[in-house]
């Protein structure tokens, strides 16, 4: 007799199999009991009939508390009314460990209560669905880059310098030397791209954000790509193809999860290539038409991004931001140096910026000047400047925030549910 996953039960119709899992819920009478089992791959209703199983085993079901770990054996039957389309007629079960009184019951709990118990909260169907979509998205990125011959080149986590400004650095002591947790793998990705041509990295990044919003985590995962000989337009085209591929994969392979999450999938299905592209200046006009009092040169806040993306109902690229609000490495537009050849991708439905990217400065003198203007310590960037001394080429790249993308594709209110253990302002337990 084989042990199978609930999600694969369809392949075992009318066979006797064993499910290894946990008791999610139970109900029933003195003659029939329904155990709802979860095994990480799905939920299954297991029917226990007293007459079939005998009095002793039947009575033992009374001792089975929520989250008791248990192995249940029985016959797989079709049951159109059940969630997955199947149920099990139980012939026997083996208790692995009786659970103590479980704090997360089937009634509603407040989010603070749940966050304190995040290690248990992730066992609920909704959280499991989100984490499954997250996993699919991660696989989709990797497959996308693999199919296109990109090399996966990992960037370090401990770094001696800032990539995205000095205000959000997490510092640490590196054997007496000052070091920081990486805000972005980009600078190292640029070096890797000069070696390998087209590369990506995918890892955790850290920002000591002072803001407590629905979109910010202190620790989040970023997919970053860097391509030698790519200009801004090549960069944007690659990004939209990647995002489109990821949406398609989630729609294709996460139907059940999206249903659990009540996601309006039509909104995702309606997304078409190419995504609209507008300049920052055009975006400012859209804001003013919507009645916003917005000054050219300011950075967009979340409400502004929502107005802009609602205008299109699609992911939209905003390019050529003012030089003064963007990072030191952004290449100025040769036709207007007050703006840079960078673009952000704004997700629809108010999810805001999910990608930041652009073409990098390839000129040594200009890059040195920018490092000084941004009051960054030149010594820490000597190696980075070398990339402009030895065979500098036009190159571009981008970084996509995984958690914001998960929030968008799952249709979530808040980013805290998109990662198993979120790190938020003043909150790092468990
Ligand atoms: O726009 P950002 O800061 O760009 C960079 O870090 C570039 N160096 C990337 C590159 O070109 N290789 O961050 C990129 C993305 C944002 O668009 C957003 O999706 C996400 O990272 N992000 C965050 N996600 C969650 N919490 C935070 N605190 C985030 N900060 C940025
Ligand atoms: Mg950004």
UniProtKB/TrEMBL annotation:
Subunit structure: Homodimer.
GO molecular function: asparagine-tRNA ligase activity; ATP binding; catalytic activity, acting on a protein; nucleic acid binding; transferase activity
The organism of origin for this protein: Pelosinus propionicus DSM 13327
Keyword Nucleotide-binding set for record: yes
UniProt record similarity statement: Belongs to the class-II aminoacyl-tRNA synthetase family.
This protein's encoding gene: asnS
EC number: 6.1.1.22
Main localization, broad class: cytoplasm
Organism ancestry: Bacteria, Bacillati, Bacillota, Negativicutes, Selenomonadales
Transmembrane segments: none
Protein name: Asparagine--tRNA ligase
One of the Pfam families matching this protein, by short name: tRNA-synt_2
